[in-house]
Write a structure and sequence with these properties.
14 strands, 6-stranded mixed beta sheet, 6-stranded parallel beta sheet, 17 helices, alpha/beta
């Protein structure tokens, strides 16, 4: 049952309503429960909040005991970006793998099963899917999170994903508007800039968002990117031209607009989170996402106070804040009405593995035979981007170890990695596991050294397969989810 704290004025309640904060711990801290009573309408969950499905269900029940209509959001893309299975790797392949299969029915099934599992745990808003067209092969933050580099491909799979996810009663939040695919900078670290004509944006980047809107996406997430062709002064998250005129006006979108994390340096390092949040709501955003890095009550207080002060000073119209808060409540009402859908959706626990197997692209040299003895698995490991994090395991070693007991493994990076692998492997057959070889010259050099000394080396590419296949066997998985590793291990071992 919803509780309302006495003495909380309407303006303060609306300011709290538009925030989507995070917190630490696997149970809700007292301040979160108290703030729910004062007007907070959403929370965001991250890997640190989740130990198991059962624990997550208990946590969401704890939140709903305080506010029945609370929006519980999560960043669960499947694939490389997983929160449900942050410590084991995902049971679902990510977008690039689904795009590689290019079966919209399969994408819909995967999204529906992921949504069913989220709904069973009490989560009703997913910050997914990524609708970015990965047009820049060197993109450091999107990559396998995109369905691919083709506009039409991304559009049809975005629509299928939205439809599948929402069939389970979980609201989709299509991101990162107006498109983060043509960037060479990670907005977690700095403000990316996309210098292309408006016509390119309309024909390439905006098309998947139009498809998502047509499919009924209940939320859209803004990107912290500067797009001078649309607004030369402000990043999309803070731009009335992009959020209100383009997204609301030209594209006709009427759902919830959510910001990307406000503590990301593209905003925090340029405007600051308080000023950024005021500008975002004024520009047309309805919900302020914060909590990936700043996850305490003081952050909620600072942002709530900033919004209230902006209304009282006239910088932010009260009408705009009221409208934003009402859109949050409208989404909460939709999720409550859609809850029954999840209960009737049949479980399909194997759909992720089926999809991962279909996504493999295998290149075999003449005379290759599957492994029958335990190999040495060398993970050539790049630094993880913040969206993925470094706590989620990846690779094929664990899955190969189940098929070929005695498999050994090590992680390598930087100049000389190839020689280090040869020394560590000894006489064992080498399986080299890479991510985005085309983006890392040291990785390509390590493979050069390995293949020169050991032509029978097997290569498993778990990122974007931008380099030419090489090795006695080359397996491109199109992502590093646990199921992608299992599918690759089956091929390597002939299982």
């Amino acid at each position: 049952m919803t509780t309302i704290a006495s003495g909380t004025d309407t303006l303060t309640r609306d300011a709290l309503t538009v925030l989507q904060p995070g917190f630490t711990g696997t149970t809700a801290p007292d301040w979160v429960l108290r703030r729910l009573g004062e007007g907070l309408a959403s929370v965001g969950l991250f890997g640190r909040n989740i130990a198991s499905d059962e624990q997550l269900a208990a946590l969401t029940a704890q939140l709903r005991a305080e506010r029945e209509d609370v929006l519980v959001a999560i960043d669960e893309e499947g694939g490389d970006v997983t929160r449900l299975e942050v410590r084991t790797g995902s049971s679902f392949p990510g977008n690039l793998a689904l795009g590689a299969v290019d079966d919209v029915g399969l994408t819909r099934q995967v999204a529906a099963e992921l949504g069913r599992r989220l709904a069973a745990c009490g989560v009703n808003l997913n910050w997914a899917p990524s609708a970015d067209v990965n047009s820049n092969p060197g993109n450091p933050v999107i990559g396998v999170r995109s369905f691919g580099a083709g506009t039409d491909l991304v559009a049809r799979h975005t629509a299928a994903y939205v439809t599948g996810l929402q069939s389970a009663g979980v609201a989709a939040c299509t991101k990162h508007f107006p498109g983060h695919g043509d960037t060479a900078v990670d907005s977690h670290h700095a403000l990316p800039r996309i210098d292309v004509d408006a016509s390119v944006l309309a024909e390439r980047d905006l098309v998947p968002f139009r498809a998502a809107i047509a499919a009924g996406s209940r939320a859209v997430m803004s990107a912290h990117i500067l797009v001078p062709a649309l607004d030369p002064d402000r990043p999309a998250t803070l731009s009335p031209r992009i959020l209100t005129e383009l997204l609301r006006g030209e594209l006709g979108y009427d759902g919830l607009i959510v910001t990307d994390g406000m503590e990301m340096q593209a905003i925090a390092g340029t405007y600051g989170i308080e000023r950024g949040s005021v500008l975002a709501v004024a520009a047309g955003a309805d919900a302020i996402c914060v909590g990936g890095g700043l996850a305490d009550e003081e952050t909620v207080r600072r942002l709530g106070d900033a919004l209230v002060a902006a209304v009282r000073s006239g910088e932010l119209s009260e009408e705009r804040l009221v409208d934003a808060a009402e859109r949050v409540r409208a989404l909460a009402r939709w999720t409550a009405g859609a809850r029954d859908a999840a209960r009737s959706l049949p479980a399909d626990g194997e759909v992720g593995l089926r999809a991962a197997r279909r996504a493999l692209r295998v290149t075999v040299t003449e005379g290759f035979t599957p492994l029958t003895e335990a190999p040495y698995v060398a993970a050539l490991t790049p630094g993880a981007n913040i969206a993925v994090g470094d706590e989620t395991p990846w690779g094929v070693a664990a899955e190969l170890g189940r098929l070929l007991p005695g498999t050994e493994t090590g992680s390598f990076a930087g100049a000389g990695a190839g020689d280090e692998v040869l020394a560590a492997a000894g006489p064992r057959r080498v399986v080299a596991v890479v991510r985005d070889e085309h983006r890392h010259p040291w990785m390509a050099a390590a493979l050069d050294a390995l293949l020169a000394a050991r032509p029978d080396t097997i290569v498993v590419e778990m990122g974007v397969p931008g380099a030419e296949p090489r090795g006695a066997l080359h397996v491109a998985t199109h992502g590093a989810a646990r199921v992608c590793g299992r599918a690759a291990a089956e091929v390597v071992a002939g299982a």
